[in-house]
Amino acid sequence: MADRTMRAWSVVAPGPVEEGALRLVEKPVPTPGEDELLVRVRVCGVCRTDLHVVEGDLEVHRPAVTPGHQVVGTVAGFGTAVRGFTVGDRVGVAWLRRTDGTCAYCARGAENLCPASRYTGWDADGGYAPYTTVPAAFAHRLPGGLDDVAAAPLLCAGIIGYRALRRAALPPGGRLGLYGFGGSAHLCAQVALAEGARVHVLTRGAAARRLALELGAASAREASDPPPEPLDSAILFAPVGELVPVALRALDRGGVLAIAGIHLSDVPPLNYERELFYERELRSVTSNTREDAREFLAIAARHGVRATTHVYPLSEAPRALADLKAGRFDGAAVLVDDLD
Ligand SMILES: [Zn+2]
Ligand SMILES: [Zn+2]
Q1: 272: CA distance to ligand 2 center in Å?
Q2: Ligand nearest to the CA of residue 111, numbered in listed order
Q3: What structural domains does the chain harbor?
Q4: What residues are paired with 5 via a beta bridge?
Q5: Which of 27, 113, 261, 335 has the most CB atoms within 10 Å of its CB?
Q6: Is the pTM of the predicted complex or chain greater than 0.70?
């Protein structure tokens, strides 16, 4: 494989996606490390984090990186130390790529906080290409009965939405507010509803509000509006710091607000009495553990959690990212490989 090349998307110089920050280049087909799988990419989901990598909201970890961390593909080869995989196996590749497995965080089951963690499509080339690699220990087995397009958005949007839901500590039958309603939120909402929550969606965009009501949300309003009842828990999916005090004010006494994004614009000053007192809590969400992924993929299969997907050819990745940036679709975009 080492002498083969492929066409892959590359972040040549981070900047606005509409201005060509993502370019199609010729790269070698990657060679898997000894504990890694080579994956033939069939579908790669589009995540807001990809946009942050392309536009430079996140610092450069690997120059000219190929983004993409919601890969559904098949094993095309593997290193000498890999056991338990066969060529042709269907696997998922997600954001968390590697941890040291030895630090205090890893030891207590918080590998998402590992200081040595590495990420697909940021530290290593990801899935906006016909081939990618993944350490075998971080490859996910995907539930049957879900086609490739339907499975891809579960791998980041779904898993992160699930971790955010657990971080928001929603009590059984509780009242949940979702601020922003894109790929992650619409999957999170389905889990919460299946578990008996009453869900209120607060977001700009009539299409997203319509989708929320179709999925079973009790209400859907503008992000700046108060929900119809106080919230036990809220999750901020929109990368908009101005919404932090808005969401805190919507919480009931003892409520929890979890911030799901990896990047957030600045949070304005908070008023202690109006926004934090009465034991309201503000929490961040950092990546996820493999255990989160296993739990979520099992729950998604059990409850029939389904992404609303918009399919783009991989050759049009910049258009998919520009549409995500402009909020031109509801649900989640996926790229289907047409480069190989
Ligand atoms: Zn660690
Ligand atoms: Zn992501």
Answers
A1: 32
A2: 1
A3: 5-155+308-336 (3.90.180.10), 159-284 (3.40.50.720)
A4: 28
A5: 335
A6: yes
